Amino acid sequence: MPFDRATIQSAAARLAKLGVYMGTSSWKYEGWLDQLYTPGRYEYRGKVATKRFQRDCLTEYSEVFKTVCVDAAYYTFPNQKYLEGLAGQVPGDFQFAFKVTDEITVKKFPKLDRFGDRAGKLNENFLNADLFASTLPLVRTLISSQRLALVKRPAPKSSVTVNNPP
Q: How far apart, in whole angstroms, are the C-alpha atoms of residue 84 and residue 19?
């Protein structure tokens, strides 16, 4: 079944007006060329330029969807320059969702080079609510100044509390 860009764009806009945001877990997927993305916007000398696509495709993505998950946030806390760069590519009604970094969500660090001395060890910041909360001031600052939106939702009727181990 082919991707019907106009239908998805219309449905996403209607749902967003109702407070329901439909998007994907990332946006830098070249497999969506000729579907979500127009190859001509990224071509250089007759070929899609990967760097141009990676740099500019969020703008085209935001013409169809009203939200996206910043999956890069899983690997590191986003910094101000990175967030400002994202916000500058999308319209004011666009919403970002951020994965919580593996610095908080990984119970035991995998034995991968990127974890260095921590590879294979327990994560002392696993489910650390204080560390998570420490990232919020940057996001809040950018929300007010750079069109990043934090969706306020009513508190759930029941909730689960996670206590950090000592």
A: 24
